[in-house]
Hints:
Elements: E1 8-9, E2 15-16, H1 25-60, H2 66-92, H3 105-108, H4 110-122, H5 128-138, H6 140-148, H7 151-171, H8 174-191, H9 195-208, H10 212-228, H11 230-239, H12 247-270, H13 275-293, H14 295-310, H15 312-334, H16 339-357, H17 359-379, H18 386-393, H19 397-438
Antiparallel strand pairs: 1-2
Amino acid sequence: MGQHSPLNKDSSGTPSGGGGFSYSAADEEKRRGVRRMKATATGLLLFVAVVYVLAKWAQNSGAGAWTGYVAAAAEAGMVGALADWFAVTALFRRPLGLPIPHTAIIPTKKDQLGVSLGEFVGENFLSEAVVRQRLRAVGLGSRLGAWLAEPAHADRVTAELSTALRGALTVLRDSDVQAVVGEAITRRADAAEIAPGLGKTLDKVVADGGHHRVVDLVCVRAHDWLVEHADSVMDAVQGGAPGWTPRFVDKRVGERVYKELLRFVTEMRDMPEHPARGAIDRFLTDFAADLQSDSDTRARVERLKREVLGRGEVQDVIASAWSSVRAMIVSAAEDERSELRLRVRSALLSLGRRLATDPKLQLKVDGWVEDAAVYVVTTYRNEITSLITDTVAGWDAEHTSKKIEAHIGRDLQFIRINGTVVGSLAGLAIYAVSHALGG
């Protein structure tokens, strides 16, 4: 995570920095612990990356719907791991050495952090232990559950959420959202090759005989059309005959061609084992294989896809999708009997009953609230005591960063690990909910 200049050493051989700052052997031992935790967090990131690749491979191989859940969890885990790696690294140095704003926070803002740290210590009534003790005594989880379990309260929360949703959708400019949605859909569709997927789908349809109904429908419609337009077919055949042939010959030929064509279509309609049907099966099977493996066929499909995406009508449909979705959501949010509001209300009542009766869930909620409160308190304290302020101000910035990292870096690496795990669980939950709502 970056290189550091060698530490200065005092007369006793102990590494030291400026302003009375000393870097002891105990600090070095802690740094070794930090490096071990970094390796663990990085290994977990590599693990979910490998799981993602294998899951996508299995998904593309048709292994089953479970691969989508695994891939979604692994992908979200990678995102969480990378985001938390950036956040932790940005505390002590510039990630990858890039001059990104608001990074290398401790070296560049050492004095300001010293002030914050001093006043936090001075006002220890806001320490983590005190905050957790006070919140634990409140029993927020059980109280919230009892409150939400009341239908009137669930109705109120549902109404407030609906109002907030409508307000958010009102603030958003349709033109901006449409542009973003259109660009995102077009970019995603343009980046993904569709021919192999179409080939696999077509191959499965043919293998299952799903195309037979389409062939049946075409044969029936073709037969009915020939019966209805017999004169037109015979006139077309006669019109293509050479001018030197007698008209009665042309008429006989037209009638013969029409009868043979009608007989052929009738036999295809009535005979499931007709040779022409077998030829169609073979053609579709070969076409499905070409879509998956033939480079020329895949290139043609990609060109056709780009031509379709580039058409103004298609872009208008994509851009207008947001308007339809927005209108649908707003309408559902305003209607008290809509499926959306009924589902939200039911979910809130169910959550309230569980919170009121499930001690394990209450502990989880209390833990989440405590963690959130501790994070807010410890992050946004702005003052420290003058003693800590003066001491930190005399420290060398780089050595200060190293010492602080040695003391808290191991715990910070747990953020990366937690980010990977929580990201995976969140990705799995979102994927599962999306499929459930979509179903």
